[in-house]
Amino acid sequence: xxxxxxxxxxxxxxxxxxxxxxxxxxxxxxxxxxxxxxxxxxxxxxxxxxxxxxxxxxxxxxxxxxxxxxxxxxxxxxxxxxxxxxxxxxxxxxxxxxxxxxxxxxxxxxxxxxxxxxxxxxxxxxxxxxxxxxxxxxxxxxxxxxxxxxxxxxxxxxxxxxxxxxxxxxxxxxxxxxxxxxxxxxxxxxxxxxxxxxxxxxxxxxxxxxxxxxxxxxxxxxxxxxxxxxxxxxxxxxxxxxxxxxxxxxxxxxxxxxxxxxxxxxxxxxxxxxxxxxxxxxxxxxxxxxxxxxxxxxxxxxxxxxxxxxxxxxxxxxxxxxxxxxxxxxxxxxxxxxxxxxxxxxxxxxxxxxxxxxxxxxxxxxxxxxxxxxxxxxxxxxxxxxxxxxxxxxxxxxxxxxxxxxxxxxxxxxxxxxxxxxxxxxxxxxxxxxxxxxxxxxxxx
Length: 445
Prior knowledge:
This protein is of the alpha/beta class. The protein has helices at residues 37-47, 59-64, 81-85, 88-100, 117-120, 128-141, 175-188, 198-203, 211-214, 237-251, 279-294, 369-380, 402-416, 437-442; strands at residues 23-27, 51-54, 71-76, 107-113, 149-151, 153-155, 159-160, 169-170, 192-195, 225-226, 233-234, 259-264, 309-311, 360-363, 430-433. It is globular, with a radius of gyration of 23 Å. The two termini are 36 Å apart. The model is unreliable at 1-18, 345-356 and 439-445 (pLDDT under 50). It is a lipid-anchor; GPI-anchor.
């Protein structure tokens, strides 16, 4: 049975380029039976995840993250940028409601203003920098500007001629936005947020980009990509894209703005047109990405400069539209079961905290009793669980409740199925925990 490798992320100072790199995760919510904020935070803590990015500023989620020490990026959704970018007061109200109301209990370290605005919402581009400046002004007024950075995530498609990296430049169409934006990032000590997806570079290359090069797999020296202008060697697509962004900034005379990768990952499932969206490739990419980021090697252009990265994403978002791959970027199912076991052996600062795979399947506290009864009946019937200990007078009869009996049955099924992915769901009434339900039952009242 595979060992469930629990990965621990490094705690670093606010500006990642000046310390050790870290790995974080994005938390999307387009999920059927989305776990409650309390359940999400329990999973984060069980996995040792210390950095998360939210796509909004959900109050319940921010309250659940309070007093955990987890570092949080909150986001201004794209549909609010026009309002904030046109009104200092609107920006101040947003900061008061979504940031000031939650700090310091919730450790908010950055605000992402929109997501890929230049490429997905170009009509908001003229007010994007104003939105950042208004948000920043509100932070200054609250004396929070030193601990909370403001930036906006970009698609890597804003970079043209990305290989060789030394020839890369930002799409000149966006110069009226990009130049003042970079001035803002430089003056506030913030970072360029960049979404880096080697999967799409590989898929769109028509065979030019080798799969091994996209997945960080070792390459023989004669297969490495060489920038003919700098003679720098590139062994993976991720580094080449990040360096293309560094060169594009230097083309505009900005040379000291660090990069924070706000999204990167690989889908574990795709349709017939996406044959390389597989569990094995997703596992390989994310495992290698984690090791690569945490070894603090930086990139060929910026060796030793941290490129902290947020994996896309925590959960599979099954409600997203588009190709099958859109629903399968997650490390976990909504039930809390892992989609695959990360290959993190001998990864230095990333290590296994739970080498015996001590996870259990329990009934959710808010689960419908009829659904729990159905799960109990199925586990004790078609699931072939021995439920005799639940009979009156037997060891697991007390407490005599549907929730308690269902937890015994569904956990027994989960264990006998070797805790394999998808065996702790039961139509959304079950979730995975690291607390042994049998120990809890035996504790004195």
